[in-house]
Model the fold of this input.
Amino acid sequence: MTRCTSMASSKPAPTAEANGQNGRALTLNQQSQAAGIGSETIDDFLDRQPRSILIRLYEKPASCLAIFRLLPIMARQLVMHMLFLQQPPSIDDLHVWIKKDGRASFQAAVEKLVRLSIVKQESVAGRPSQILLNGVFTKGMQRALIGGGDHRSFGVPCDTEDKNAVDVAYLDEYARTKWETILHYMVGSQGSVTPREPVLCVLRRSNLMQEGSKGSSRLSITSRGFQFLLESVNTQLWYLLLQYLDMAEGRSFDLVEVLAFLFMLGSLELGRDYSTEELPETQLHMLEDFRDYGLVYQRKASSRRFYPTRLATTLTSNAATPLLASNGNEQEERGYIVLETNYRVYAYTSSPLRVAVLKLFVTVKARFPNLVVGSITRDSVKSALANGITAEQMYRSDPLLPVTVSDQIRLWEREKNRVGQELGALFTEFSSQADFEQVRNYADQMGVLLWQDESKRCFFVAEEGFQPVRDFIRRRVT
Done:
């Protein structure tokens, strides 16, 4: 008689081999791509939108200008060449402008513009193919450049003086405080303020945070969330905003109005106040949400004016200005952390946020006004691993960490990962050694044998091998 039991088996988990003596970590960009941070951009999001959405978006000049700024250089050149032409150029005419070694870039630019419904190729019998600019985009782009119309897509400046006016320095401090409130909550800083539910919903949806332990209402950071903390503020912000865009339909928001408001914010003047009276209902809801991210400032919720912060005005800019650190100085340059081969860590920083991030995997021993002293220990690393942070995220390939430290971190990670689970079935109680060997060999030939104990006449097969092995026993053994 043979007995079969379905269960989960534990076995050594596969480990990645070190790449060279030092086991170089992934670069920060590779880690970000692997974690999904920055793997999709607003450019990719627009590529996925149907033509109907894009055409409505192009009715707003501010959106046309913002999307134009996001285009590759070659695509921008093509748009500017054709924008004020009376007759659409043919493909042959455009090829005259392009060098031979730039033909690939030209074709990629045309394909990009076609995907965004900015241009279309049209073939006429007996004539070379032409490239036509979308009429709605042309009109919107021309208005963005030379003015005209009453579209007000670039915001409506307030025509009355603000008795409680604020300056740029105040807006920078406000934006930094609001944004770091979210980051402090993510790293679990002591005394951190819990953001409003809409922000928590975005953090959960983006897999930056997950439900904490039973009995705890606080969310806990994930591996992706830790990688998120290492990115620039602009990358972090767009990652959350893309999640916000994906949630727009579920909240019954008009996606065109959501995108138009984002692009409008990127075109506003820092330090100037704008009226809310012309904003539709969707954008008024967004204004309330964006206060939580530090994108806009309002003295109170019922205020009829708002100020865009630096976070908002640099949304569509490649040269985003970093926020000021909490001590009023510019953020420290790379290299502010010193790590010794004895696992001692010296961090020359006064930023509470940076200290909070360090505490995720470093045991802090002492703090001074501009210096934090700590050490990397087995317990601190295991605590970080328990939070979903991987060993590769604890060090960068440039510069390399001391070999003794990087290797030890890997060993501590392998302690946690040396046992893995496999679903399958355990076959036991074979009536004879011959029956055991016959069935065991069959499972081995199928490649589903995971474990065996010949002395006890039992073996374990993978889940997909359960039914074939059981059928074999019925045919051959019983």
User: Anything to note?
Assistant: Residues 3 and 113 are 65 Å apart (CA to CA). DSSP finds 20 helices and 15 strands in the chain. The first strand starts at residue 3 and ends at 11.
